[in-house]
Amino acid sequence: MAWKTKVVGYFRLMRFQSAASESLLILIGALLMGQKDPLLLVVLFVVGVLFHIYGFVFNDYADIEVDKKSVDLKKKPLVSGLISPTHALLITCISVVCLYSIVIVFFPSVIAITILSMAILLGGIYDYFGKKISHISDFFVAGALALIVLFGASTVSSHITVIVYIISLMIFIGIVFANAVEGGLKDVDHDYLGGAKTIPTLLGVKVTEGHLLMTRRFLAFAYGLIALCFLLLIVLLMQPAIGFFNGDYLRLGLVSILVVVMVFVSVKFLSISLFDRSKMKRLYAVLNSLAGIVLLVTLYPFFGLEDLVILLLIPIAWYVVCNNVLYGKPLQPDV
Q1: What is the sign of the dihedral through the CA atoms of 77, 9, 328 and 2?
Q2: Considering the domain boundaries, does residue 4 fall inside one?
Q3: In a domain, 6, yes or no
Q4: What's this model's pTM, rounded to 2 decimal places?
Q5: Residue at 190 is within a domain
Q6: Which neighbouring-strand residues pair with 212?
Q7: Tens of pLDDT along 311-327?
Q8: Which of 70, 83, 166, 249 is deepest in the core (most CB within 10 A)?
Q9: What residues make up the domain containing 289?
């Protein structure tokens, strides 16, 4: 049974349950540019999984000492000692080698390889320096994920459309929020104690006797990002190719309802007074899922019903199945 525990530990280290969501960003970039070849779409999905593994494993490797300060994170594979740091670094290197090998074989484009390299570089800077330097590190990971959308598009054509750029910018703002606000808050208890320079800690957020104390500066930053996201969504909806205001009342109503729910969940998240990591992770997952659904429904004219259903179901099914296998429950991993 020891080897099974070890194998499960490796997959937990790779955050395998959320890999499909990151791959979705690459697929969206390619699909928006007209990619329809099933084989190439599968290859791009694999590239997304490898990029995801690289990012999360390297991040855990760099954050071992900070993570050890949190009781909630004692079960993480590297913190518990189940997986050695050397093996984590080896996985990181193998992932990068496989990434370049696949892209060179299937997408031998200078532009595609350059964009991928920039994404790997920005992701690596965030992973290694994220909790050692200033708060700008959160913008590095956002840039990396925004770039993989452009990477997906560049594997089809070097003439990337305006809509792809808008989506990439939305991803950038959304990831800054997800990483700096949502992720920062759920880790602020040990980040604050460990002296990590995350955006919440630099803006004065801390946990005192179990109470989560958010400052006005932090809330202004968080709500400012939310406003920017919705502004970009409006710009996207106004693009002629989206056809959002051409009598498609069903899509208009669905997006409107989802946006209202997202605002409600965001306010609820930013109104938490008692530090509760489990509750934060649940709200975090709900908000990110809603954001993904809104984006896909908005881009429906580019996908069609069949592709839309597949794009919606793949990350959900992947997440639920992997979570059940790795953690014994469908929705909330112990990380």
Answers
A1: negative
A2: no
A3: no
A4: 0.86
A5: yes
A6: 207
A7: 888 888 888 888 888 88
A8: 83
A9: 12-327
